[in-house]
Structure formats: structure tokens, C-alpha cells
Write a structure and sequence with these properties.
heterodimer, A: 2 domains, three-stranded antiparallel beta sheet, 9 helices, elongated, B: alpha+beta, Arc Repressor Mutant, subunit A, 2 domains, globular
Amino acid sequence: MVGVKLSEQAAITDLQTMLPDLPPVQLDAFEGPLDILLHLIRKQKMDIFNIPIATITAQYSNIIDSDLSLNVDVAGEYLVMASTLMQLKSRLLLPRPELDEEGNDIDPRDVLVAQLLAYEQYRLLAEEINELPRMHRDIFKRAAFPESENIERPLPLADLEALLVAFGQVLKRMTKEVRHRVVLESMSVREQIQFVIASLQGGSMQFHDLLHELRGREAWVTTLLAILELWRQRIIQVVQSEHNAGITLLLCVHDDKVLI
Amino acid sequence: MLSQKVEALILASDEPISFEKLRLFLSPVDASKLHGALSILEEHYAGRGIQLKQIAGGWQFRTAPAYAGIVKQLWQTKAPRLSRSMLEILAIIAYQQPTTRAEIEAMRGMKVSSSIIGGLLERGWIKVLGRKDVPGRPHLYGTNKQFLADFGLNSLHDLPDSSQLVDVDGIFQERPTASKNP
């Protein structure tokens, strides 16, 4: 496999001798089968509209064979591409119509080439997006407003999406506990509404602190439903000071002013 | 006088402040005078350590990228590097929106992990726009305002030039007849 000139490859039929000295690559350096194919094609300066399928198939198989630790989930996608390549190779060897009704070329490789080109464009755009000056990496804004006692700042209101994201984070954090006792506890939203109101009597409360007082997925979900119901009825207010910050719950009073 | 007022409002606002909001807070004010005040400020801040920029449909002061290195020292935490898969998925959503997970997977030839979609949602860069009317009613994703704000874009038109997104079907119509040796 040493030093075979790439341009001469097409003439050589023995697959083993066709493999040039490509620098060794790790499968996890790639973002999937298309990424590998583009790497092989561009690295060897092949014509993407005339891909030497036999060569590419052998090189591709070599790369995926080199990593046997591949987990089943990911392996499937790499293997699908391997079989697509094999199929293409055999279709190119068999007699087939070369022109369609309109006299255009029919090339079985076209579908794959279109997929590769489309993916390559997004790969490029992703790089360009990464190079945009990004907040907190290249660009910063004023960090905090000097608080003054005379200034009343309106409470920024959270939205449903923020509450659900916060709930997801709580679930992720709390379900790490392993609990084995199986008991059936039935909870009602009505009870949890009472619980939420009672908890907020003493003042505002962080959403995750409130859920921390409870155990079990059922309790958390029921409480979330209770919070949504209270929010809908404007009995409580849901506040988030900035994106991804903690979510605070507080009771409303009747004239729609906030009770803190 | 007007440009000083505008300057104060922009500095004190947590979010990029829109032209309409400025106009409301400074009313009665002529739209053209307000435009004038903004361009005076823009010019005044050109080449300084902070810049006045139009971001996500509003005006905001931000530090100039050239000084990122020294400004970073103010905080312990560093902005995390984004993985290639996250950037690629974000790019596909940004240019193809509204789009579904299956469409992203077809484009990349690779499964889209839930943790990446979750990560993008958590950062507020993408959101669910609705559901596609096909079997399974999959979520349709699009970018969010936070995406524009964090990547310094005023609108989606400011994304890196997508004219390079050549029409792949077009290529096959135009290309010369390729020689046939597989």
C-alpha cells in the first residue's frame, strides 16, 4: 500500500494496492459518514462529480473497520453508508441506461453527490457562524446596572418555555437519586395548589427550591401542573430576571400588584 | 441633546432597545431626528473600546471584539467551545427554518442527538415553532431572538452569505457530461 499515485488509482483493480498512505484518522474525529467521504474526496483532490467509487469504498471501509469500539447506535449509520457505496459500485459495473428521455446523463452516483455537496455547504456555514463575534467569547455587554434605591425596576416576566426548561433541569438533577421503595402515592393537582400557595405565603420562592421539598417524579409533575394552573389564573406570578437565570414564583394580590 | 438622551437609554437597557421603544420613551420626537441622533452616536463610538450596534432589531452597546482578551479577565468562567455537531445543526436550523429533526438528520446523514437539541433550546438559540403536518407531527425548529443577540446579528439576513448555498439540482443540469469511469 505504499506510495501509489492517486491519479493512477483508477487503472488498478486490486483494492488492497489502491489504498494510498492516508494519514491515520480517528472515527470520532468525524461527524458521520458524509463527513468521512468528504474528507477522503477533498484530501485526495478527487473530482466530486466523478468519484472513483471502488477506491472510496475501500478507504471508507478501512476507516470504519479501524474502530471496533463503535457503539451500535452510531455504527448503524456508518454501515448504511458502506452498503450504499457497495450498491453503487455494483450498479456502475452492470449495464444500465446511460441517458434519460431528455438525453441527460444518468449517473447512479448523482444522489450521493448531491447529498455530499449539500452537507459540505452547511459544514462551511457552520464554520462561518462559529467565526461570528460571539457574546461572552468575543463581545461583552454591560454586566450589571448600578442599583439605586430610588429606581423601581419592572420584574421581567418568564415565559412558559423558560419554566419548562427549568423543570427539565430539576428532573435531570434530582432523578440521579436511586430509590427502591415502590409505593403508590396518588397526588392531586388540587392538593398541590394548596401546597404551592402555602409555600408562597411567606414570600417569593425559587422554583427549584420549591421542588426540592418534594420527592418523586409524580410529586414534581403534579406540582408543575399546579404552578401552571395558578399562573393561568393569575394567582401567582412567574419571574425570570434574565435568560437561563433561576425562576422565582410569587403570589399576586388582587389589584394585580405584586406582593413581595 | 437628543443624542445624549438616546445614549443614556441604550446604556441603561438590559436588552437591545428597539427604535420604537426609544421613540416612545422620548416622545414627542421626530423619527428622522431620532435616526439622526443614532447615526451621530454610531459615528462617535466608531473606533472606540465600545461600539454601538444594531442587534436583534434593537440598539446595544457592546465591547469591541479586539479587546475580548483583556475584558475576559473580569470573569472566572470561559465561554464554552461549541462542538462541530452543535454548530452544524445550528447552521442547518438557521438557514432551513422551519425544519424538523428528520430533515436535519437527512442533511447530515447522521442521527441528531437529543442532548444537542436540548442544549440549543436551553441556550435559547432555537425554539419550537410548531409541528409539521406530516405523520408523527414532528416539531418544527427555528432560531430564537437570543441566537441573533449572541451572534451579533440584527436579523437573519445578516447570517453569513447563503448565496453560496448553490442549488444542488442546478449543478446537475449544467455540468458537462462527465467521463464514465467509476
